TrEMBL record:
Its cofactor is a divalent metal cation. Keywords: Hydrolase, Metal-binding. It comes from Actinacidiphila cocklensis. It holds the Pfam family PTE. Zn(2+) 2 binds at K141, H174, H203. The keyword Metal-binding applies. The keyword Hydrolase applies. This is Phosphotriesterase-related protein.
């Protein structure tokens, strides 16, 4: 059936509700400087604040091996009543120990690892030998490089495409500084056969090239904008203008918004989406368009025809 796969189980897309389509409850890596997201109490408080403003769902794009903490994500969802969609997948190679990547290359391979996390349950901890939890991933997270793709990226995306073809799972993409989205879509959709509507292109606000945005939208992918962020504040001023331009070009039904919280205090968080951005979108585009961005579009982007598991 077509459903959104949350950490508490599958739900009908229409039941997803108001959604932060790209965020992180937990996120850690030795390659990331400064404080990191590793506090369950802080995550619960943050999501409860989002819930108090009318938020009903949150997609955590933290992939395997970066402190995603599936058991704690389940606890946050239960404590707040907010649906949480978790991710399998891998980020850039810099975030992983070479031994971990080597183990994922052996055995049944990376595509089988992703598929099992989507259909059987996510591995606890940040190593492939951890215990399998009951919480299943509902999407695959991959990452491009700055203005290009490297061998690690191509390996991960090839595996993600295989896992997509086995399960229908949507694929969310980190674009470094918002770049290389055309290259990524050319690989996933053009070469590997993933339907464009199953690809969620993230961080596009960080590279506010209107022509590139229109090209990606014309191909049929979902376009995910996030922030604001202390780390990427320079492009915050273009966020609403980019959304308005894409809506004017007929792509309202492909727009996604997320807070993309990556560190404590790194931005105003998921509440900003509803407290500040939603009123601005209603003013600029009307209530129906804002409803699409926060409800209908995430429901479509995160839904998949999951295989029946006996």
């Amino acid at each position: 059936m077509t459903a959104v796969r949350t950490v508490l189980g599958d739900i009908e897309p229409a039941a997803l509700g108001v959604c932060d389509a790209h965020d992180h409850l937990f996120l850690t890596s030795p390659a990331m400087p400064g404080p990191q997201l590793d506090d369950p109490a802080e995550a619960t408080e943050r999501v409860a604040g989002f819930r108090a403003l009318g938020g009903e769902a949150l997609a955590q794009w933290t992939p395997f091996g970066m402190g995603r903490r599936p058991a704690e994500a389940v606890a946050v969802s239960r404590a707040t009543g907010v649906h949480v969609i978790a991710a399998t997948g891998l980020h850039q190679a810099v975030h992983y120990d070479a031994e971990v990547l080597g183990r994922l290359r052996r055995g049944d391979g990376l595509a089988a690892f992703f598929t099992a996390e989507l259909t059987e349950g996510m591995i606890a901890g940040d190593g492939p030998g951890g215990a399998r939890t009951a919480a299943r991933a509902g999407m695959i997270k991959v990452a491009g490089m700055f203005h290009g793709l490297d061998d690690h990226t191509r390996w991960v995306m090839a595996a993600a495409a295989q896992a997509h073809h086995a399960t229908g799972a949507p694929i969310g993409v980190h674009h470094e500084m918002g770049t290389a989205a055309v290259d990524v879509l050319g690989l996933l959709h053009g070469e590997l056969g993933v339907p464009a509507r199953s690809v969620l292109l993230g961080h596009l606000n960080r590279f506010p090239d209107a022509g590139v945005h229109r090209e990606l939208a014309a191909a049929g992918a979902y376009l995910a904008f996030d922030g604001p962020s202390r780390a990427h504040h320079a492009t915050d001023a273009w966020l609403v203008d980019s959304l308005v331009a894409l809506a004017a070009a007929g792509h309202t039904d492909q727009l996604l918004l997320g807070a993309d919280t990556t560190s404590p205090g790194g931005g105003p968080g998921a509440g900003y989406l509803l407290r500040t951005l939603r009123p601005r979108l209603i003013h600029e585009l009307g209530s129906a368009a804002a409803e699409s961005v926060f409800r209908a579009n995430p429901a479509g982007a995160l839904a998949a025809p999951w295989p029946v598991v006996s």
